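Sequence only, no structure available. Ideas?
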Amino acid sequence: MESSEDGLNYSNNTNTLNPLQDLPALPAQSRIRRVLLTLRDTMRTTYNSFGLCRLYPRRPSFEPNQFVPSSLLAQTCPAASQGSDSPPQVSPPPYPFPNMTLYRLMSWMNTGSSRVSESKVAALVNDVILADDFDREHLMGFSVRKNLRELDADESGKKIAFPDDWIETSVTIDIPIRSKEEGPRPYTIHGFHYRPLLEVVRAAFADAQAAAFHLFPFKHIWKDPLDGHEERVYDELYTSDAWLEAQDSLHKLPKEFGCSLERVIAGFMLFSDATHLASFGTAKAWPLYVYFGNLTKYVCSSPTSGSCHLVGFLPSLPDNIKDILSNLPRMSKSGMASLHTHCRRELFHACWDILLDEDFLYAYRHGIVLKCADGFMRRVFPRIFTYSADYPEKALIATIKDMGLCPCPRCLTPKGFFNYLGLVRDMKSRMNTLRVYAVANIIKARQFIFTLGNTVDGAKVEDALGEGSWVAVLNQFAYKLGPFGLDPFRMLVVDLMHECELGTWKALFTHLMRLLYSLPEGVRLIAIFVWIEAIFRQVLTFGNGVIRRFMNNTSEMKRLAARDFENILQVFALIISFCAIPVFEGLLPPDHDAAVQSLLYHFAQWHALAKLRIHTDSTLLFLEETFKRLSTKLRKFRDHTCAAFKTVELPKETSARQKRSTQHSETNIGSTESTGLRAKKLNLNTYKFHAMGDYMRTIRIFGTTDSFTTQIGELAHRALKAFYPLTSKLDTPTQLAKHERRRRALRRVAQAGSIPPSISQLPIDISSSGHHHRIASSRNHPVALFTFLREHNNDPALKNFIPKLKDHILYRLRKLDVTYCDFTFSDEERRSVIIPNDTIYSVQMMQVHYTTYDMRREYDTVNPRTHAHVMVLSGETAPKHPYWYAQVLGIYHMDTWLNEGTQPVKERLEVLWVRWLALIRNHKSGINHARLPKIAFVEESDADAFGFLDPGQVIRGAHLIPAFNSGRGVSSLRHGRSVARPGGELDDWEAYYAGIFVDRDMFMRYTHFGVGHPAMLRRIARDCESVALGGMEGNVTGTSETDVGHNTHYDLEDERCEDIEDESEEDEDESEEVSDEELDGLDLEHAAEDIDEDGDEEEDDFDDLLSF
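Reply:
I predicted one. Tokens follow.
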């Protein structure tokens, strides 16, 4: 590899010759050269209703989703005579129990919950006591302990466990000592619990879930209905380039002698992360999980699906090793710390040396014959694709120094150049300096340590390792699987949760808090933070856990998990979206205000794109463009806004530092540290900022980030944390393994007997998801129309209530287009509408079902009291914005008669009574302006301020956040109580922001890239100028008023921002045009400062705080 353009020599990284002789040998090449002509039987399926088709490089013989007709599947050989490595079948239930009653009771007990909650009691009643095969006589003489023993292994010695049972072994590492004469001292760590990886493969293919395995990779192709062009779709691992390349390499291998079976892949996706098992105490575990990429990510992301395979508990170094190290000859305190770190790395890879045993390596090269779900034999080859972990563990896996000079586990870009992110030189550096394992350097360094007695961090060892921040530990992934094509660095995929939501976004949010603390207003500052707390607490929740209620002390960031920082990002971009917000009004100069607004908008947009569950070529280009803009704005924010303020530690940071200093001084007499405030700067030279540039490449190789996010592993921790209270708190890994084994055994027994899932776990209403909406038909809350009007006779919201209702009914019964309700019916026509007893019926909730951008069915719950806002398609002929917004005041259903002289027509109708909101004129939104859509209630003087809406018009629930900078007022509705103000308030928020970043589907509805969205909606979004992509298209010319009431006071509100917007856009354009050469002097100075400042990036331990 040539040296980089910055003059760094990476020649040591290119030495891939492996001098070790015991590597698995590849087959020797024949002396006779042959030319192989490979004929591929490719197949392209027809397009489905979404415009998707599959392109198979080879005709598949099995397809789990029935996407391919059986007549097009390839014929395969049963190969019954060749035998199978599949595990034996389990005896049907109730084995090992004498009857179904005991089986059901023990199954309920081992569901993995430590608390007797309402749902647990309901499950006991529904799934056990009320079961048809339950018999109380079977419980005579029942003993929990006896049945648990029978579940583990019955007295006759006949086990129900499969061969993938737990094994406990010891791990031995060599501790080097500084002596040429005496060799390294072996040290044994006991209690490594694991399951053989090859047996896990056998068990997975024998599981009922194997019927959903994708054995043959394919490309997803999308034909856009708007213009007919085709694009590649990136979603699952089995549709990724990595799997296609692996399958192609597999077919190029020589066939096994006498074997004509199809060759397929078992795709490993590894997850590991240490976690605390309890809220108090030091109990922790370091589990290792395996998921199979053959299974769709929508199943793997569910912690109760059974797709998670717990395969081991990685041990940690025991406490007594410090005593051993301290007694070594010529051991200094700093040398002991380095040696302790070295032993920890050795232990980790020694465990993987055991996991990657000879059987697994043989299967990796030759495959194993297994019976697949369709009953046919195939030769299955395990392949490791991804390993998801946080950064410290990535450094362990990659055998590099944690936050060294080249801290990236995927490339050799120096840390000092990380702030070039987004520039051409940065992208070139990533591709030109990809890591290649320097095995010769590692072996040379280990000889210095173990043979010549040098210290693990000595000068000779460092010189032998060369550049690249390598450590003198043998990487088992590169050593054992590298010869078979595994890239141990490419598999270390990006981690959105730890690296962004708990990393870069947390760092930016923290520095924004420092900026506010740096303001000189003293007493006024206290009021600012009280105001911020009030803002976050007033943000409404949304969806099923999408935006949750914000906790107290958000600005202090106490006990915030990853989901909390994600919610802050989604909402903070809305709150700080305009220069007039009271936090910054009069405190920050206008150019700094504009920089913060633009930065937050682009960060939220990048986050939304990086987290998409399905990407196309167009969205990846959009992500790349957004990343470039975000990178420019981050540097501008650091160089201009941050440089204008003297920022210091937050009170929380000062307290934490002083606490650490006190603990350190207890063991180091005489060590003191200043108690003053330390200066703090925004540091872009961290790995987490650098990793933001790897998302585009990672998605193209492995698919979308939700397939390998560490959040999947965090969700798997739930089971262990539920098992832990059931243990004796002694020998925790052994007892956790026993509980996992019991649950796995019960699941397999249930599968063998085709026992249906628990009644308490079944969906409440499966059939309703296919309908647009669901409104209950309950008549428990009748509303007598004339009584209702008399009770609120002075309420302007009820003006013309009955005429508007009857006009709406006439539109519906006459089958007119309710999108354009611009026709007023006569009183005679209204009298033809008959509502029996003048009574309608109110319900509290409506479910709106919709198809997401990734073709899943989801629903929003609309409730007039808690989640009242909805969005509908714009009814304008040439809309500038694709949607209208409304607040639902009531949900009603009624029986209606239409008597127009012919046979009366009776029909049950469902209606929504709404209060309309309209876009604010002269407010620009979209990428070019870094603004969100801003709306306000239509004034009561407008005839269309209130009205009725067909529930079938609702697209989704909308997340509207008050524009706190605009305050509250009575400009749209007179002061006083009104049914239009369900909370009893006397006034309204003057304006709202449309939360386009509230979830991924919502964001995609403001673009035209949603594969699963209707073509009509996407066409309107594409043609609108005020949506998220307006700036990308370069056609933003302003907005025009909609058909639903714009008023003059809206025009004045945003005029004060016009000059600021124009000036900020000019500054941004100028900064984006600066060349790499012109940035050399500026950024290198900051690079040097950032390396000194926070050079050892802190990795906060949020594992015990994460719950999903």
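The two ends are 44 Å apart (CA to CA).
Hope that gets you unstuck.
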